[in-house]
Amino acid sequence: MKQLKCACIEGLDATSVDVEATFTKGLPSFSIVGLATNSIQESRDRIKSALLTNEFTFPPKKITINLSPSEISKSGSHFDLPIALLVALNDVKCSLDGFYVFGEVGLDGKLKDTHSIFVLILSLAQQGLLKKVLIPKASVEKISKIPNIEIYAVDTLSQACDFFKFDSKEQSRVINSEFSYKKMTINKKSYYYDTQYVYDFKEVKGQQTAKRAALIAAAGNHNILFEGSPGCGKSMITKRLQYIMPPMSLEEILEKAKLDSLDAIEPSFHPIRVFRSPHHTATKASIFGGGTQSAKMGEVALSNNGILFFDELPHFGKTILEAMREPLEDHRLLISRVNSKIHYETKFLFVCALNPCPCVISNYK
Question: Which domain holds residue 343?
Answer without folding.
Answer: 183-364
